[in-house]
Amino acid sequence: MKLRQPTDFLILEALEETGRNVAANLEAHTGKSRKNINTRLPILADYGLVRKIGPKERSGLYEITPKGEIALAHRDEYDEVDDFEQLIEDEMTSTG
C-alpha cells in the first residue's frame, strides 16, 4: 500500500467527516484538484480504503470503509512503520 501524503489522508478525512461524497465536493474540502482526487479515489478503492457506491457505474460517489477509518486513525504511523498495510490488517483482525 503506497499512499500519497497528504492527499490520500485528506480524502479519507473528508469522507469520514462528510460521509458519501463526489470528487467535486472533496475538492472543496481538501483543497486538492478534482483531477488529483479522481486519480486517487480508484487507487484508494483498490486498497479497500474507500468504496464506490451508487446505482450507476459512473456515479463517482464514494464512501470511506472500516479499513479506511483504521488507516486514517493510524496516519501518524504511516512513515514510522515498515508495513502500514499489515498494521491496518492486524487492527482489523483484532477489532473485527
UniProtKB/TrEMBL annotation:
<keyword id="KW-0614">Plasmid</keyword>
<dbReference type="InterPro" id="IPR036390">
    <property type="entry name" value="WH_DNA-bd_sf"/>
</dbReference>
<dbReference type="InterPro" id="IPR036388">
    <property type="entry name" value="WH-like_DNA-bd_sf"/>
</dbReference>
<protein>
    <submittedName>
        <fullName>ArsR family transcriptional regulator</fullName>
    </submittedName>
</protein>
